[in-house]
Design a protein that fits this description.
It is a single chain. This protein has 148 residues and is mainly alpha-helical. It has one domain. The chain contains 8 helices and no strands. The radius of gyration is 18 Å and the shape is globular. About 11% of the residues have low confidence.
Amino acid sequence: MDAAKLWMIEHQLGQRNLNDEQESYYIGLQYELEKKLEGRPSNGHYRAVSPDQQHSTKEEKDYRRGERYAKEPAGGSPKKKLGQNDPVRTSQRIAKQHSVGEATVRRAAKFTRAIDAIADAAGNGARKAILKRDVKIGRQQVQRLTAL
């Protein structure tokens, strides 16, 4: 289910007609879903590996591992694979994917959580109104509303 949601989010982010709020919301949603999929326990249980993940291509495995390769040095020597103790954070990987900073991804996740909290309290129409800019409300104001 989460894999389908991630595919839909990546498809939405590929569109060029998103406004800033929508793009930020989807980046934050992608971060929240991928952070959850990284193998963190949810409700005290670890996520089981599905059969299709057991036999996948090298590229898919590298993507799931967060493409743990260091940047190529200026001398042009081959890339060095990072060790187990040097993992790439989910926010770093998503930031690289969307050409934004890591802090931007984390702020987007905070914005996403705030909009989802408003939608839980006021209904799905509130989420749509904020993301379509039908309501004149800024990101900081959205986060302040959830603090009330």
